[in-house]
Amino acid sequence: MTATEDLFTPIHKAIRSMIYNVGSRMQTNDFADLTASKPLLADLEHEFTAAVSAGCVLCILHHHASDEEKEVFPSIATYTPDLIQSFIDDHHDLTRRLGVITKMAHELVTLPHAPERVRQGLTLTQETNAFFAAYLTHMNREEETLVPFMREHFSDDQMRAMRGAIMRGMPPDRLASILGWMFPSLNIDELTEMVGGIKRTSPPEVFQFISGIATKHLTPERWRQVTERVGL
Predict the structure, then answer these.
(1) Which sequence spans correspond to the domains of the chain?
(2) What is the pLDDT along the chain (232 residues), one digit of tens a residue?
(3) What is the DSSP string of 171-184?
(4) Of 68, 87, 96, nearest to 8 (Cα)?
(5) Spatial contact of 13 and 186, defined as CB atoms under 8 Å apart
């Protein structure tokens, strides 16, 4: 029987929501107003050499790629190394783009005059849009190729173990930030499957932690639907 698990689409839906949110904020932001711009710029800065805020959007995107390479790609590479190498090459290009965006965001903060910041903000927005377009294309390709491949070659239990390893390896604040984006991004069937799977496979304290995130970020009606379906 073909497996049904999907390690990519739920987290990708969360990342798409992050990208759409940041893209909207960038195209409406007044970069002449440095005070208003700083929270947005903080989401665009990835510090490669030190710990960063768990909510930094580009940091989450970078960590997501690292998680894939550590916990998922090695198993798939035993079957199709060339395909996995193509995704790793994508990750390297995306990391390079992250460095460019971070440098530009740092520079914008130091510019003393509003017109300079507006010009830099326009260039930064264009660069970030190009990065987001590449990232969206990359995620689409992963879903189109790797989801069916893994369902053919791995069992649901094997894929759940990979997901569990990724979640256990995250600091609680980063896990909470990702799930805070993920839960509102899923449809009711995906929510039911995810919450039910976590309930079946996690210790009570872990499920309580994750349920708290869900209740915070889902509407009461959607959470009621999930609890009824899962049998909570």
Answers:
(1) 9-161
(2) 588 999 999 999 999 999 999 999 999 999 999 999 998 888 887 554 444 455 577 788 888 889 999 999 999 999 999 999 999 999 999 999 988 998 999 899 999 999 999 999 999 999 999 999 999 999 999 999 999 999 999 999 999 899 889 988 888 888 888 999 999 999 999 999 889 888 888 888 888 999 999 999 999 999 999 999 998 8
(3) -HHHHHHHHHHHHH
(4) 68
(5) yes
